[in-house]
Amino acid sequence: MKFSEIYKRYWPYIRGYKFQYVMVLIGILLTVTATAGTAQIMQPLMDNMFIKKEADMLYIIPALLVGIYVIKSLGRYLQAVYNTYIGMHIVSRLRENLLDKIVHMDMQFLYTNRSGELISRITNDIARIQYFVSTMMPELVRESLTVVALVGYVIYLNATLAFWALFVMPVLIFPIIKITKRLKRLSHRSQEKNADLMT
Q1: 3-state SS of the chain: helix, strand, coil percent to 5?
Q2: Cα-Cα end-to-end distance for the chain
Q3: Which pTM value belongs to this model?
Q4: Which residue from 120, 127, 153, 170 has the fewest beta carbons nearer than 10 Å?
Q5: Which pLDDT score, from 0 to 100, does residue 144 have?
Q6: Is the pLDDT of residue 65 over 80?
Q7: What value does the CA radius of gyration of the chain take, rounded to a whole number of Å?
Q8: C-alpha–C-alpha distance, residues 171 and 163, integer Å
Q9: Residue ranges per domain, the chain?
Q10: How many CA atoms lie within 13 A of 91 on its CB side?
Q11: Is 134 exposed, middle or buried (0-12, 13-18, 19+ CB in 10 A)?
């Protein structure tokens, strides 16, 4: 299933939490900024503090590091709180809708489908939806922005190094794609085994 189809399917559930997603986005931006700031602070740490031995840097660098990690922790906190809020509320709505649908199902459907499979789908599938909505989607945005910020910083520092890094990275993607496909197949097998166990 394509990402656009997934997004379209879950949009009715997602659109009611715009404020929470804005807070998650603020948390992501704080985290990405702090991550880029950690990379930026390494140069004065090495050059001014260790090589030039500037005494002022003994106070400035630790204070900056504490500030960076406070910003990063605040960003992570906002993400964790609002992601959990969104996930729990969407899951409760999905379970209510699913319960209503199953209660009004034709009895023939309930006779032709194994009860274990239905229970497995109600519990496991909704848990996966919660993971997608509250964890996977924000992490995708956060990691994408982090990659963009760090790649931009590397290009700013050294364009030649950035060229080699960007040339090698696509080569590493192919094994990851193969691993992802295998994990997807294993996930389907796991779902079937859960249904058998429930039955």
Answers
A1: 95, 0, 5
A2: 28
A3: 0.63
A4: 170
A5: 80
A6: yes
A7: 23
A8: 13
A9: 3-198
A10: 20
A11: buried
